[in-house]
Amino acid sequence: MNKIFLILISLSIALVASDIPTRTGTFPQKEMKAQNKEIARLVAKEISSTLPQTIDKLTTLASVKNKDTTLIYTFEINTGAKSDEAIKKEDRTRMKQAVTAGICQSSKKFLEAGIDTSYVYVNAKTKVRLFQFDITQKDCISNLN
Description:
The chain is an alpha+beta fold. The protein contains five helices and five strands, in the order ααβββααββα.
């Protein structure tokens, strides 16, 4: 993943986190969930203000939204002459491994807090959904074993 993109996400997270009032002690589960929803909403809003963002010569981050406590990143892929079916068949496993490893490293604190990540990849021309990778803290733990 592009280093500039990772820096952008880190800065966005830091900016959003600094605006959220915190308190010490243990939060009740209901308050934690509400706080995590608000964090996800604010992060999505902050990152969205910089989009679209070119990741590499084939990939563009088109949108970031939140659904409850999940951040949903939608990427558009320029597939060239390759068919959607060929992309799905040939690239899914490799992409899932790379995305999971990247998310587990770059979003560790979010995942530990219960804010999950979903990466959706669509064909830039046809808008056909190619992949969706939903990553939780559990996925990162299982990758260590």
